Every structure is written in C-alpha cells, then in structure tokens.
C-alpha cells in the first residue's frame, strides 16, 4: 500500500509557482533512453520550490539536447535522472558534448537515479544526489560556491 499512496501523493503535488527571484537555472531531464520521469518530476518540483528556475528537457533526452537547452537558458546546473543502464552508458557522451560546447566546468552537472552511484557521477566530474532532498541541498550549495 505504501508505494501506491506515495505515488498518488506525488501525482497530486501541484506545480509550484515560478520563483520571483530564482537562485539559479536548472535544465533537468532523463538522459536517453530513460523514460522513467516520476523521480525527475519530483526533483524538478523540489528544485522549483527551493527557488530555482527549472527548464524541463523531458525524458529520453540526447546528450546534445541537454547542452543546447543549457546554452539557450543560460543554465547554471544540468540535472540528469539516470534510471537504466543504457542511460548510464550515455553519460560519457554527455560529458563529451559539454566539453565540445565549452560548458565543461562552467555548468554544474548534478545527477541521481536508480542506475547511478556517486562513483559514476564523480567519473565525469558531476555531483550526486541520492534523493530529491539531497539533490536540492547539493544544488543550493553548488550555486552558493559558484556565486563566490
């Protein structure tokens, strides 16, 4: 029963309002071919509630699309949800796309999801959040460090 209840509660969680003075901009999505966007949506809403402007890239997103959206929105953070092994295998492509675009080290990379561990994130210089609360905390800390 617990799982259904929390799922329904998550579905009922309404869309938070756009923050008036965002602390930063986050492009968030599921890297291809990952289609599991429940966790991503929870993180996106939590970030928005915490004062971030969020740009939802969607699910099963190609690495290049994350890069394009980050450039378009002048994003501070790219947050990636990784829930399948094939999706995890595309992280190196995302890293490469960021390098080519000149965004590596400029845009903070934050990831989480069922298929990744802290080591996977660190392998490409990304931050890792094991749940939405930790993800939001890490995003806030990263923004504070970036503003210095």
CATH arch. level architecture: 3-Layer(aba) Sandwich
What portion of residues is helical? 40-55%
How many beta-strand elements?
Answer: 5
Mean pLDDT: 92
CATH-defined topology: Rossmann fold
Span between termini:
46 Å
Number of domains: 1
CATH superfamily: Cobalamin-binding domain
Order of helical and strand elements: HEHEHEHHEHEH
Percent of sequence in beta strands? 15-25%
Assigned CATH class:
Alpha Beta
Which geometry do the CA atoms define? globular
> Helix tally?
7
Major beta sheet, strand line-up: 2-1-3-4-5
Low-confidence stretches: none
Sketch the major β-sheet. 5 strands, parallel
**Which structural category fits the helices and strands?**
alpha/beta
- Gyration radius (Cα, Å) is 14 Å
Please provide a written account of the structure:
It contains seven helices and five strands; from the N terminus they run αβαβαβααβαβα. By secondary structure, the chain is α/β, with parallel strands linked by helices. The chain has a single domain (23-147), classed as Cobalamin-binding domain (Rossmann fold). A five-stranded parallel beta sheet has the order 2-1-3-4-5, sandwiched between helices.
In brief:
Helix 2 (38-49) packs across helix 7 (132-147) and helix 3 (63-73) crosses helix 5. The protein is an alpha/beta fold and 148 residues long. The chain is 48% helix and 20% strand.
């Amino acid at each position: 029963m617990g799982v259904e209840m929390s799922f329904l509660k998550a579905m009922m969680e309404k869309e938070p309002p756009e923050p008036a003075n965002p602390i930063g901009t986050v492009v968030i999505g599921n890297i291809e071919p990952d289609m599991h966007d429940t966790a991503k949506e929870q993180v996106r809403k939590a970030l928005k509630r915490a004062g971030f402007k969020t740009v939802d890239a969607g699910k099963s997103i190609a690495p290049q699309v994350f890069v394009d959206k980050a450039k378009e929105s002048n994003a501070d953070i790219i947050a990636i949800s990784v829930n399948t092994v094939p999706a995890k295998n595309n992280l190196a492509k995302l890293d490469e796309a960021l390098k080519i675009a000149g965004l590596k080290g400029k845009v903070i990379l934050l990831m989480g999801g069922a298929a990744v561990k802290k080591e996977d994130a660190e392998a490409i210089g990304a931050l890792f959040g094991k749940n939405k609360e930790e993800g939001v905390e890490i995003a806030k800390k990263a923004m504070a460090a970036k503003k210095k």
